[in-house]
Amino acid sequence: MKNLSMSAKVFLGFGIGIILGLIFQKDILWLQPIGDLFLKLIKMIVVPVVFLSIISGISSIGDIGKLKRIGTKVVGFYIVTTVLSAIIGLIVAHIMKPGADFAVSQIVDTGEVIKPAEPMTVSQTILSMVPDNPITALATGNLMQIIVFGVFIGIAITILGDRVKNIKKVIDEANIIMFKITDMVMQVTPFGVTALVACSVGEYGLSIFNILGKFILTHYIGAFSVVLFMYVFIIKYIAKISLKDFFTKITEVWLVAFSTTSSSGTLPVSLRVTEEKFKVKDELASFTLPIGATINMNGIAVYYAVTVLFVAQVYGVELSLMQQVMFIFMTTLISIGTPGIPNSGIVLTIMLLTTMGLPIEIMGMIVGIFRLIDMIHTALNVTGDVVSTLAVARIEHMYKE
């Protein structure tokens, strides 16, 4: 076991978790505290890692012009890939028609109480990104506000240069400490993954596929279509990395994303893999990946597309081309505002369905299997972060020698 790589250990833990869940079913739920402990450890390091990485990454770039150029490319990649992901999700849902043969009578009340989210205007979305009190943002773990505050500090350090070199040194050293703590936490990842996967499989089993199998399958096909038709192109022709090399190295990130269903929770692993395995310079990865974990939600865009079309098909509602174009625009905005935490997409789906004038009763059933589809979409989210970072690294020549 000592000679196995972390990727191999995580993969082994993932496989063992599936086997334990299938064998012991709900009796395996006694492992849940181990999985919960792993998630708490991940949450413990996310805020300081994001905050310090953003500041250290931006201040290490050292040139405002270069920072502006890189920032524009990164955000551009994130927005374009989100729009394309929503379009691909819609196309797959049109082809698969997951709700066409679904009887409305199959909709059951699971007892879940889901409150619709209040729609936010563009101005409200932008204002919500800026913290009234940075300390409160840090204490409550509001990653978007933490990133905005960190960006301002990083830019200020870059402008002031040598006058604040001692502060920059302290931040860089604090960042090193957090990466060491992250490494310590990552050592228990295989055990946490085993517990989380075993409990998920044990709780849901395979019976859920009898009713919502085609709906779940459409989500997975949508996610794989994004990888096949968009990520493969970016990896091969923009990042210029061999596909075999990419998919071999990204596996560890996928397995952690599958088990945690959290883009933010997967961030420490994404950072380590991008910097150590793909050899992207630390200042770039530390800048792009925390932002990506918060605003680059390609997987969530696919989820919204498939779910909205599924509901429309179930109730026999025809969405016009203009409605679908408007949907893609709304999906992009909502995806950017979706927190990178488990289950965040549920209440925002209610908001989207309500805005589109579609019934929301079926969400009670979708909640029951949300984790199963959230797994693949979280993996797609974090893959998009890494792929965009690799592309920018190639364009800006920011790979380690």
From TrEMBL:
The keyword Transcription does not apply. It comes from the Bacteria. Keywords: Cell membrane, Membrane, Symport, Transmembrane, Transmembrane helix, Transport. Signal peptide: none annotated. Pfam families: SDF. It is a multi-pass membrane protein. The chain crosses the membrane at residues 41-62, 74-96, 143-161, 188-211, 217-239, 251-271, 291-312, 324-341, 347-370. It is found in: Cell membrane. InterPro entries: Na-dicarboxylate_symporter, Na-dicarboxylate_symporter_CS, Na:dicarbo_symporter_sf. This is Dicarboxylate/amino acid:cation symporter. It comes from Megamonas funiformis YIT 11815.
